[in-house]
Specification:
This protein has 355 residues and is α/β, with parallel strands linked by helices. It is built from 12 helices and 13 strands.
Length: 355
């Protein structure tokens, strides 16, 4: 999923990370036995990942809890050392060049902060400028831009410990970008944020991506973040990549569950049973009646089209309005997480034949 004419800014080949986990029996006896004869099991968190991301891409890296997302980010940042395989970010091996790699990346962990807890925000920013050895002119310009875009002026004299979660996340985002890194990792960045703060957060990322060519790698369970910020999605499960492609392709391939929302011309308590009788010829159909004047028909669009259902229903019930609801990316990804959909399933058309 990369452009062959552009050198990847992030590359991983056979990337693997294993951890040893102690195994011991409960109680004091188990603790003493483990002390004398320790026993371990090996857990593979990341299993032979091959990955390429080109400059300027915005990529969602998703998967269920425990799939290996955060471990991958820690390998990319140089926090962890791979058990096997190769990894480069901006041409550097992260764990071998931690200081140089730190100048090339920004990181926002949703549940951690890089601000000094008891210092006013402006002092944390000043320290970061010193740590990254930013020239005074560059620091002042970046400071001014970030404070304005993220609306941080009212927060600059507030100690980090007194910030709300949303305020702290905005300040952490600014802190991660002071040194103008080409790569930004976002690990659950919007966790706990309200709707208004999320909207500002997403707009800022889009601005940086558009105006500065920032390469973004996002891990998130908030599918609103994924849909609004990323065109490419990489899904990982049990440490392995199971999908790497356009987010829109996932919706097209698996978005076969659709709904017809029908409004009746007048209240009819028997409309639900009448609709069910009219649709007996079709499989995988469910009929719900939220009220006496509305019906919701859930159907498999691979087996029957909405036009066929409307034709059959129009002869039995009087319709005032019809609305078709297609499957959202959120519901598709949730079904993939929960194992109800599989990437190795063969797509089929509306007549049930292979596509």
């Amino acid at each position: 999923m990369t452009d062959a004419s552009t050198e990847p800014i992030i590359r991983a080949a056979g990337l693997t990370k294993r951890f040893k986990r102690p195994t011991k029996k409960p109680g004091l006896r188990g603790a003493l036995t483990h002390l004398v004869r320790p026993s371990y099991t090996t857990m593979t968190a990341v299993d032979g990942i091959d990955l390429e991301i080109i400059p300027g891409e915005s990529v969602a890296y998703v998967g269920p809890n425990g799939a290996g997302k955060s471990t991958t980010v820690k390998l990319l940042t140089g926090i962890l050392v791979p058990s096997e395989g190769e990894i480069t970010v901006c041409g550097l091996t992260p764990h071998e060049n931690r200081i140089a790699n730190a100048h090339n990346i920004g990181v926002v962990f949703g549940q951690r902060t890089q601000l000094w807890w008891d210092l006013p925000v402006r002092e944390s920013f000043r320290l970061l400028g010193d740590i990254y050895e930013l020239p005074a002119v560059e620091y002042r310009q970046t400071y001014s831009d970030l404070v304005e875009i993220l609306n941080l002026q009212p927060l600059l004299d507030v100690p980090a410990r007194q910030l709300s979660l949303g305020q702290r996340m905005r300040c952490d985002l600014a802190a991660s970008l002071f040194h103008s890194p080409p790569v930004l990792y976002l690990d659950e960045p919007s966790i706990g944020l309200d709707v208004a703060v999320k909207a500002r957060f997403r707009e800022f990322i889009r601005t940086m991506h558009r105006e500065r060519g920032l390469t973004v790698m996002l891990t998130s369970h908030d599918l609103g973040d994924i849909e609004e910020l990323c065109h490419r999605m990489i899904m990982i499960d049990n440490g392995k990549i199971i999908y790497d492609g356009a987010l829109a392709d996932v919706t097209r391939r698996f978005g076969w569950e659709q709904k017809l929302h029908l409004t009746l011309t007048e209240p009819d308590p028997t409309a639900s049973s009448a609709a069910g009788a009219a649709l007996t010829a079709h499989r995988d159909i469910s009929v719900d009646a939220p009220s006496d004047t509305t019906l919701t028909i859930t159907f498999d669009s691979r087996a029957v089209t909405s036009g066929q259902l409307i034709r059959d229903l129009a002869t039995e019930i009087q319709l005032a309005d019809i609305r078709i609801e297609e499957t959202s990316a959120e519901s598709v990804i949730r079904n993939l997480y929960e194992g109800r959909l599989h990437f190795d399933a063969e797509p089929v058309d509306a007549q049930g034949a292979p596509a």
